[in-house]
Design brief:
heterodimer, A: MetI-like fold, two-stranded antiparallel ribbon, globular, B: 342 residues, alpha/beta, 8-stranded mixed β-sheet, 4-stranded antiparallel β-sheet
């Protein structure tokens, strides 16, 4: 049907050798993500932490495979020193074995591995609720403000400003003190309700610039409803920003929970979290460093892996990344 | 009901279209301090199967006009009649129908395609909005057919816009515009972002599509030779108003408005032997701000013919004595010494 003077400019060089395989967007994203080495390593480590923490001490009615639980008080053996040994015998060590208390015991004789795993569970839960709920609120408010503009924008963004000027730690400490008594879930919800503001501003800014793009005008010209324009045309183009911000806030939530627990407003005993463990045993750093180091290692591992995974996701969702032939 | 009598085959009848953008100060208590008169009383009609070229310099309201015709902006006043109905009165189903029938091709092929969507999704999206235009099972085939029509490889349906060149991207934009089989396509400077060699390809493509599908075009551009090549009729705009409108030959061979004459005299001539025979008109000064346009004739501040009459009385766009087409100048007068003769 094309006229003779219109050669197909695309049908040249590269097509002759390599067949272009049709792939869906999802397949492309997966392929690009799996090629991202650091993100894949992080994902493996992160999943390992997740599985280890939830399977070892169990959750709710499901029992874990670890022989101790995190509340049983026992006799302190060898000053609570960790029995974990990773140096093989021929190198002058004690051989590779876990021993009775691989991470040691605290001063009441509670198995510290069980305690750390429970703390990891709670911290992960808080992190995901804050990351998920906080990002959801932030995207919702930012998107509505940026897309509809006018009074909607004024009201939403001034409301955001009000939340921003509140001294976060003080407010969260007061409310979280109450919420902390109600359990870590409500603590996470309260933190989420005060940490969405940064993302809302970023998303609004992105929307403001994207809504003026010609491809959005083209969609409007075809009669596309507002909801579909937001979902199909604008949101996917802000995905990178949202993912980075969400992973940062996830890692930030672990830190914020740590800070709150450190101040005594976070998770209440007998339950525990990584932040609480660090804060309770910070004084023991010189004498019994394992009480401080183990939860610290897990905090750092979670924060780092989540950030790298977010990095990998952002790259994977960007079709302009040319690492994989599409 | 209509102020002008449209010929029976008019597809779009634009009547006295006005768009003023308010200028305000203050954040909460907005104070109206004036308005940018982007489009100020534009009237013309677009006939079936014809191409109406719209030319004018930057900031004269061409793109605002395009957005108004697409109803991407609501006008301050005026009407655009399509199928006997004012498009600004349409709601719901009728509005959707109008959106199907009037489509647009944008200027910048780099920002007019969503970088996150494949070509297939971009060209096929109109079918998602208007499911009645193509049954679900046939959409992919239809998209591939469209890609073939605009001269792209249908195999490239799964590629992303960044994998194409500027000219190819513009073809994707045209394919998207064609998807719903519109009556009218508004081309908002479709070739000005492209290389000259690619411009010709795209213009030729638009022309062959017009023959094939019986399309009517409004072709907005600032390149006079491209407009001449593709247009049947041409409207010259200056500061939100139409200065002169007429057929291709009338505007380019017998311009009567001083602004048109000045524009034409500025067109570069490829043939050096002809160059000296032409009068060059050099306009002094800048285009006045559309926020405070001059009284009367808007061109009078830069016109060599301007008199007191021009400041007092706004010249109507009517057929002037001694000429055969409409011109908005009190002193309209054919002048051929500025014209490039072919």
């Amino acid at each position: 049907m094309s006229t003779p003077d219109q050669q197909r400019p695309g049908a040249g060089d590269e097509d002759q050798g390599i067949a272009v395989v049709a792939r869906t967007q999802g397949q492309l994203v997966r392929r690009r993500f799996f090629r991202h080495r650091l993100a894949m390593i992080s994902l493996v480590v992160f999943v390992a932490i997740l599985v280890l923490s939830f399977s070892s001490t169990g959750i709710g009615p499901i029992p874990g495979w670890w022989k101790h639980d995190y509340t049983t008080i026992g006799t302190v053996v060898d000053g609570g020193r960790p029995t974990l040994s990773v140096v093989p015998g021929f190198l002058g060590g004690d051989g590779i074995h876990l021993g009775e208390h691989p991470f040691g015991q605290d001063n009441k004789g509670i198995d510290y591995f069980a305690l750390t795993m429970r703390g990891t569970q709670i911290s992960l839960m808080i992190a995901f609720i804050v990351g998920g709920l906080g990002s959801f609120i932030g995207v919702l408010i930012g998107a509505a403000a940026g897309f509809f503009r006018g009074w909607t924008e004024t009201i939403l963004m001034r409301f955001t400003d009000v939340i921003i000027i509140m001294p976060l730690l003080a407010i969260v400490a007061v409310i979280a003190n109450q919420a902390g008594n109600a359990g870590p879930f409500w603590l996470a919800v309260v933190i989420a309700l005060f940490t969405w503001t940064g993302l809302a501003r970023i998303v609004r800014g992105e929307f403001l610039s994207l809504r003026e793009k010609e491809f959005v005008e083209a969609a409007r010209a075809a009669g596309t409803p507002a909801w579909r324009i937001i979902r199909k045309h604008i949101l996917p183009n802000t995905l990178g920003v949202i993912l980075v911000s969400a992973t940062l806030s996830l890692a930030g939530a672990v830190i914020l929970e740590t800070a709150l627990s450190f101040l005594g407003f976070g998770v209440k005993p007998p339950d525990t979290s990584l932040g609480r463990l660090v804060s309770v045993y910070q004084g023991a750093f010189v004498t019994r460093p394992w009480l401080f180091i183990w939860p610290g290692v897990f905090i750092v591992a979670i924060a780092l892996t989540v950030n790298f995974i977010g990095d990998g996701l952002r790259d994977a969702f960007d079709p302009r990344q040319n690492k994989v032939r599409s | 009901m209509t102020s002008t009598t449209p010929s029976s085959d008019a597809v779009l009848d634009v009547q006295n279209l006005v768009k003023h953008f308010p200028l305000t100060t203050g954040i909460v208590f907005k104070r109206h301090v004036g308005s940018v008169q982007a489009v100020d009383g534009v009237s013309f009609e677009l006939r079936k199967g014809e191409t109406l070229g719209v030319v004018g310099e930057s900031g004269c309201g061409k793109s605002t006009l395009a957005k108004l015709l697409m109803r991407l902006e609501e006008p301050t006043s005026g009407r655009v009649m399509y199928n006997g109905e004012n498009i600004y009165d349409l709601r719901g189903k009728a509005l959707r129908e109008m959106r199907r029938k009037i489509q647009i091709v944008f200027q910048d092929p780099y920002s007019s395609l969503n970088p996150r969507m494949t070509v297939g999704d971009i060209v096929g999206e109109p079918y998602e909005i208007h499911p009645e235009a193509a049954p679900k099972g046939q959409r992919r085939a239809k998209v591939q057919e469209l890609l073939d029509i605009v001269g792209l490889n249908p195999e490239h349906i799964n590629r992303y816009p960044h994998q194409f060149s500027g000219g190819q991207r513009q073809r994707i934009g045209i394919a998207r515009g064609l998807a719903l089989r519109p009556d009218v396509i508004i081309c908002d400077e479709p070739v000005s972002a492209l290389d000259v060699s690619v411009q010709a390809q795209v213009v030729n493509l638009l022309e062959s599509l017009q023959d094939e599908f019986g399309l009517s075009y409004i072709f907005i551009a600032h390149d006079l030779s491209v407009v001449r090549h593709i247009s049947d009729r041409v409207a010259v705009m200056y500061l939100g108003r139409v200065a002169e409108i007429g057929s291709d030959a009338q505007i380019y061979e017998k311009p009567t408005h001083p602004y048109t004459q000045a524009l034409l005299s500025a067109v570069p001539v490829p043939d050096p032997s002809v160059r000296g025979q032409r009068q060059q008109i050099l306009l002094s000064g800048d285009v006045p701000s559309p926020a405070s346009p001059p009284s009367g004739c808007r061109f009078r501040t830069r016109c060599w013919k301007a008199t007191d009459l021009c400041a007092e009385q706004t010249p109507e766009l009517v057929v002037r004595p001694g000429s055969d087409h409409e011109s908005a100048c009190h002193y309209a007068d054919v002048r051929e010494d500025v014209v490039v003769h072919h």
